[in-house]
Amino acid sequence: MKKILLFCAALLSGGMLFAQTDCSDIIISEYVEGWNNNKSLELYNPTSAVITLDGSYRLIRYSNGSSTSDQEIAYNLPLTGTIAPFKVMVIIQDTIPAGQDTMVWAGLKKKGTWLAPYAYSTAPPYTQGGNVVFWNGDDAVSLQKKQANNTWKDLDIFGEIGVRPTNWQGTYSPSGAWTDTKPYVLGVGAYLTKSKTLIRKRAVKHGVDLLTMIQYGSTTTGGVPNSFNAMLEYDTMPANFFDSLGFHTCDCKNSSGIGKLTADQQVVISPNPVTNGHFTVQTVLPVLSVEVVSIVGQSVYYRDYASRPKDISVSPDNLSNGLYLVKVRISENQTVIKKIIVQ
């Protein structure tokens, strides 16, 4: 971490630090840290051109606070293939041999479009990238792109390189996670990156590079790093939530081509479970109305929207804990129904 901060300071003083511009290159659009080996990373192409990955893009998992994993073959995963304009690549682990470890759930396997090697090892010989898709809530992940001078630049960073957040007891084992309470590495507050699915907010149009790390507060206060607040750019969903994998809603894309999405994919509700009395409905198409119905069929919230918004904050009054249905009407003859849990 100290090395990163010194490097940032040097670049800033020389006026040489450039941030990634909006809608210019691949971003991390979704992070899945589910039970067992239910791990996935979704990459989104926010441009109008096909992006070829071969030899130019890679993923690095900085395990347990490491700042040097990019120099280790097992933690360095080259990416191949292409991502079409405004489309995604869903990375999961390759088939895990029965009896060797817990299997990837079928619901996640059918979402995968690119398979990372399942070859985790703590001793040589190592497999290229074999230790990458094994994050467990306290590992930073970097999406990097090769530059013209053959160096690698961070296009997007999930977590904070060089930092391992603690668990509830203030120790480093078992693993902890970044939380919703500053400083984010002390295990105070609700876990955001362990046993969760995180979906990038639609307003995010570029990745987190060195400059945006500084803008987010990548400094130390009393010697405690405090840069990664997942809630700034991600919406949180419960463990083993895979419904939103395979597509991404981003303001980089206009409304063309949305007919290829299913009705269910056109509506995303977060957070779910609802823990603070309100939630957000994000849609591809304009919304005519939102209704919340109890499990016994009682309407507990209803509102029409003359302005036809696509990003709505819903705050029903005094909802008791339990299961509810959210009915989102996106046309006169089309209503999408989603389940939410209120805690």
Summary keywords:
single chain, 343 residues, mainly beta, Immunoglobulin-like, six-stranded mixed beta sheet, 21 strands, globular, disordered N terminus
Give a brief rundown of this model.
By secondary structure, the chain is mainly beta. The protein is built from three helices and 21 strands. It has two domains: 2-238, no CATH class; 262-342, Immunoglobulin-like.
Plain-language structure description:
The protein has 343 residues and is mainly beta. It folds into two domains: 237 residues, no CATH class; 81 residues, Immunoglobulin-like (Sandwich), CATH 2.60.40.3080. It is built from three helices and 21 strands. The strands form six sheets. Strands 8-7-2-1-11-14 form a six-stranded mixed beta sheet, with no helix packed on it. A four-stranded antiparallel beta sheet has the order 5-4-9-10, with no helix packed on it. β15 and β16 form a beta hairpin. The radius of gyration is 20 Å and the shape is globular. It starts with a helix and ends with a strand. 38% of the residues are buried.
Number of helices: 3
- Radius of gyration, CA atoms, in whole angstroms: 20 Å
* Unreliable sequence segments: 1-18, 215-224, 255-259
Q: What structural class do you assign from the helix and strand content?
A: mainly beta
SSE string, helices as H and strands as E: HEEEEEEEHEEEEHEEEEEEEEEE
Q: What is the domain tally?
A: 2
Overall geometric form = globular
Terminal residue distance: 37 Å
Which sheet architecture does the biggest sheet show? 6 strands, mixed
Proportion of residues in helical segments? under 10%
Strand content: 25-35%
